[in-house]
Specification:
The protein has three helices and six strands, in the order αααββββββ. It is of the alpha+beta class. The protein has two domains: about 40 residues, no CATH class; about 70 residues, Roll (SH3 type barrels), CATH 2.30.30.100. Helix 1 crosses helix 2. The longest helix is centred in the first third of the chain and has 25 residues.
Length: about 130
């Protein structure tokens, strides 16, 4: 967008109440638009993973808690044996999963392909 763009002039006229906008007003308006577009794009990208986060939160908050597996995009399966063994980040983009031997995993929730309930995980039994 150039400094002589008519849309920029109209926006700046409304903002400043003056005739011809200053160079600073035009640049400021362009930056505001770019920031808004970036925020919208970021919100849209984040919403892509919302369904998985919602489903993960449902399993995490279920009463009574039932153990489950996180199926990852690379084919790995990460067991969540007890509620205390998983922590969800406030943004919902990351989950921290701990195992009985104190090993831990940082999971990118966007890479979770599915969730599977598994009753036998709580006892420490292996999957078949």
């Amino acid at each position: 967008m150039s400094l002589t763009d008519k849309n920029s002039d109209k926006v700046c006229d409304k903002l400043s109440g003056k005739g011809k906008p200053t160079k600073w007003e035009v640049i400021s308006t362009q930056l505001s638009r770019a920031r808004s577009e970036l925020e919208e794009a970021t919100e849209t990208d984040y919403e892509f993973g919302t369904m998985k986060m919602t489903e993960l939160r449902k399993l995490y908050d279920a009463e009574p808690f039932q153990p489950f597996l996180l199926h990852m995009a690379n084919g790995r399966k990460i067991p969540v044996r007890r509620r205390e063994f998983m922590a969800l980040s406030p943004s919902g983009r990351t989950a921290y999963v701990y195992q009985m031997n104190d090993d831990s995993e940082v999971v990118d929730v966007a890479l979770v392909t599915s969730l599977e309930l598994r009753r036998n995980l709580a006892n420490g039994k292996r999957d078949k």
